Amino acid sequence: MTETLLIVEDEARLAQLHLDYLHSNGYATYWMASGNGVVEWVRAHAPRLVLLDLMLPGCDGLDICREIRQFSQVPIIMVTARVEEIDRLLGLELGADDYICKPFSPREVVARVKAVLRRTPHKPREQRGIVQIDEAGYLARINDHRLDLTTIEFRLLTLLCQNEGRIFSRTQLMDRIYHDHRLVCDRTIDSHVKKLRKKIAQVAPDLELIHSVYGVGYKLEYRETSEVNPVD
Ligand code: CA
Questions:
Q1: Structure confidence at residue 154 as a pLDDT band (50, 70, 90)
Q2: Is the pLDDT of residue 96 over 50?
Q3: Separation of 76 CA from ligand 1 center, angstroms?
Q4: 37 alpha carbon – ligand 1 mean position (Å)
Q5: How far apart are CA 113 and CA 140, in angstroms?
Q6: What pLDDT is stored for residue 230 in this prediction?
């Protein structure tokens, strides 16, 4: 699942500039030129971040922001044409994560996007906020400790995290994490899992994350060692 940034901007030239810069910084982007359908799109696609222009034809960015906040904590950066507007916006407590005033350089936008994404790590559903996956940056953290993973280990962890509780067979895991369909022995997966567990244990010794399911494969579930083996 690629993480997508949604850009809501009615000025096509400006939107194109954002798209180019964000794209060249490794983000997938989607552009909407008006406010129509934005709330529904966010609901359906759960983007990683929304860059939301305040003044949109036939629609107000404020209302969109409020509506999104009814059901989602997706990071929102509001874009306004007037610097004095920002104080008023802050007072409205819309729940936006940052505000940018036009005119701005595309570089500044990228910097703000990165900063907001850093502050708001992606948390796969039902995850109790332990593992943080940044797909665009190929980074994984546990309790804010960075895991030093190979690409294959990263894909493995991401897949399992995004499907918490689901059991995968070794073949399914191989199909999903080896994009080039290399022919590998299914025991290769065992060796990746072993290394991944070791790396997880280095940063979170009490966390049991990846579980073997006898005769089937693996699944991810959050368990503290102490939950399984009480000390007293
Ligand atoms: Ca506008």
A1: very high
A2: yes
A3: 16
A4: 16
A5: 18
A6: 39
Span from the CA of 31 to the centroid of ligand 1 (angstroms): 13
CB 221 within 8 A of CB 164: yes
What's the gap in Å between 45 CA and the centre of ligand 1?
Answer: 23
According to DSSP, the β-strands at 145-147 and 139-142 are: antiparallel
Q: Among 27-31, 126-130, 182-186, which range has the highest average pLDDT?
A: 27-31
Query: Which domains does the chain show, CATH number per domain?
Result: 4-126 (3.40.50.2300), 129-227 (1.10.10.10)
Cα(7) to ligand 1 centroid in Å equals 12
Q: Could you tell me the distance, in angstroms and rounded to a whole number, from the CA of residue 106 to the centre of ligand 1?
A: 16
pTM of the shown model: 0.53
Q: What would the two tokens of residue 148 be?
A: 């030093």
Contacts 24+ apart (CB under 8 A), 149-152: 149/196, 149/199, 150/195, 152/177, 152/178, 152/192
* CA 16 to ligand 1 center in whole angstroms: 14
Q: Which residues surround ligand 1, an ion (CB under 5 A)?
A: 10, 53, 55
pLDDT in tens, 176-230: 888 776 666 768 899 999 999 999 999 888 888 999 988 888 998 877 655 444 3
Q: For residue 34, report the distance from its CA to the centre of ligand 1, in Å.
A: 9
